[in-house]
Specification:
- The longest helix has 13 residues, at 273-285.
- The two termini are 40 Å apart.
- The strands form three sheets. A six-stranded antiparallel β-sheet has the order 7-6-17-14-9-10.
- The radius of gyration is 20 Å and the shape is elongated.
- Helix content is 19%, strand content 39%.
- By secondary structure, the protein is of the alpha+beta class.
Length: 286
């Protein structure tokens, strides 16, 4: 573990819909300043001068995120060029990825500043989208990449390959390609397996397939999945982590593989994954 005694550059990212009027954010900044930290935040209405979003990541040693899992997913993609560890404080509902609840925020940060933490790395996925044999876009995700039909579309057909080997032509509402972290998200709702988050595998789960033989498959992290859109139907979309969308056309090819980038999470509590899983699934079902 690195010596953190002189590592007091803290970036703060807040979901302003979760922290109305930035009440808790202001308390956090005051706490960090009193601890001798340099604080970077992309917000000018606080006691410190705001900086660009790029500088929040570039100048910080750690990123403290105030929000739910959705905010964490967004920040995990944003930090990719900078490789900064994230400490998530749950202001949302489930909080599978966040480390501490809102009422335990200061205790968690005390542990971080005293060096009482570990870093957990999570696999991410990369999607290269090709159109007319030219790359159209490259996207990244921590949870999942979904290729789905639009709201009023008919079923879509997706031809899938592992390398050059044809796997199946999926017919249905779409396909979810997820990381182990994302196995407890949309993939689970679609019948996919729960996968221990520290493993490095790729989970492929069809959405409402029109075949009883279509089931989830688990690939090794070194394999590449190719998905070809067979339909000329205009209502086919690719989304990353349920947050960023891109419209696909018939003939588009999507190459999905393990990203060279990892998400890093600060862990200050020795929480058991299965205890968290059971707790969160129980909360979700009530």
């Amino acid at each position: 573990m690195k010596d953190v005694r002189n590592m007091y550059n803290i970036g703060v990212v807040v979901n302003k819909t979760k922290d109305v009027n930035l009440t808790t954010t202001k308390r956090l900044i005051e706490f960090l300043l009193n601890k001798g930290c340099n604080v970077f935040i992309n917000e000018d209405s606080l006691e410190i001068k705001g900086v660009s979003q790029e500088d929040v990541f570039k100048k910080s040693d750690f990123i403290v995120v105030l929000g739910g899992d959705g905010t964490i997913l967004r920040v995990a993609r944003m930090q990719i060029p900078y490789n900064k560890p994230i400490l998530g404080i749950n202001f949302g509902n489930l909080g599978f990825i966040t480390e501490a609840e809102k009422d335990g925020m200061f205790d968690a940060i005390e542990k971080l500043l005293s060096g009482n933490f570990t870093i957990e790395k999570r696999m991410m996925l990369k999607a290269d989208i090709y159109r007319d044999e030219k790359i159209e876009k490259t996207l990244f995700c921590l949870n999942d990449i979904c290729i789905t039909k639009g709201a009023i579309s008919r079923i879509i057909k997706l031809d899938t390959f592992i390398g050059s080997t044809h796997v199946e032509t999926y017919r249905g509402d779409g396909l979810i390609v997820s990381t182990p972290t994302g196995s407890t998200a949309y993939s689970l709702s679609a019948g996919g397996p729960i996968v221990y988050p520290e493993l490095e595998v790729i989970i492929v789960t069809p959405i409402c397939p029109h075949s009883l033989n279509s089931r989830s498959i688990v690939l090794g992290s070194q394999q590449e999945l190719q998905v070809r859109v067979l339909d000329e139907n205009e209502g086919v979309f690719l989304t990353t982590d349920g947050q960023f969308g891109l419209k696909l056309r018939g003939g588009d090819k999507v190459f999905i593989s393990k990203s060279e980038h990892m998400a890093q999470f600060v862990r200050v509590y020795n929480r058991n994954f299965f205890d968290v899983l059971q707790k969160k699934l129980k909360e979700f079902s009530t």
